[in-house]
Amino acid sequence: MAYITLNRAKLKKNYEYLDNLFKENGIEWAIVTKMLCGYEPYLKEVLDLGIKEVCDARISNLKKIKKLAPDVQTVYIKPPAKREIENIVRYADASFNTEYRTIKLLSEEAKKQNKLHKVIIMIELGDLREGVMGDTLMSFYESIFKLPNIKVTGIGSNLNCLHGVMPSHDKFIQLSLYEQLIEAKFNQKIPWVTGGTSVVIPLLQIHQLPKGINHFRVGETLYFGTDLVNHTVFEGMEPDVIRLYAEIIEITRKPVVPIGTLEANPSGEKFEVDTNDYGRTTHRAILDLGLLDINSDFLIPEDASFEFVGASSDMLVIDIDDNDQGYKVGDLIPFDLKYMGALTLLNSEYIEKKVI
């Protein structure tokens, strides 16, 4: 059975790297846990690090976090759906927002629950996912400040999440200026300018992040040590906090070219024959996971010598050529993971999860 592991020591090392980096720069930060898909043993490992604020995009996950660590501040990090308002106020201390009508509903629900709900207003900086447009910002804030049981605690942005627009010094100067204008016009203090995510860390390291950006939300770099700008791993961080191990369930020498009339497979793919491959054979190994669990594009094999052939719903086929490595049935093949790969594996009920 394929399984994934979370390495406690490597997770702690990456956490301490980031915690020291942010403390040196006077920045508060939160851990984003949405990749863990609410798996409680992994959530507990993250919470045991000592973080004071956790962000997630699923209410069910925040509910588990509140059960495990009631004193940790929970933040719902996407604009709330109308039908989730009651639970958002119940389990999220704060939420990201872009719609007045939604915040009004949060206000009404917070009053019912006798709570003060914090909101972070997300601003559009060009990636065109969630965010209030700059030309409506002042009127938007004016209406929000009038709502009871609501406290505006932040202004924020997301970049590189949809269209790949990269963060820059100029974009964050713009975000900081918005915060200053709002504070000056309404005489309201906004504590957090939360522009920082994993992709922004390189700007911080080269001292190109404006001082006004004082809050980060980090997930990917914590789990993979990833420098998302330079496509490397930060020196001093670990890339494999989370790893996959897939078991070989068959090894057989087979022809390279399929035998018979070819049509599209269940994934809609049609195999194209290279005439140079006629008569060639190679060892093919089948691994005990498939498209139901992960797309091979998100797998980084420790052994770079083999090639991915294809996958069906529950089996992944690799070409190991002459099998000089001596693989046999029952062996485990280790993989590092890209973020989206880890996300899909953690969301799968069919992949065992371990802490090491």
Automatic annotation (TrEMBL):
This is Alanine/ornithine racemase family PLP-dependent enzyme. Its cofactor is pyridoxal 5'-phosphate. Keywords: Isomerase, Pyridoxal phosphate. SUPFAM superfamilies: PLP-binding barrel. It comes from the Bacteria. Residues 7-225 form the Alanine racemase N-terminal domain. Transmembrane segments: none annotated. Coiled coil: none annotated. The keyword Isomerase applies. InterPro entries: Ala_racemase, Ala_racemase_N, PLP-binding_barrel. Signal peptide: none annotated. Pfam families: Ala_racemase_N (PF01168).
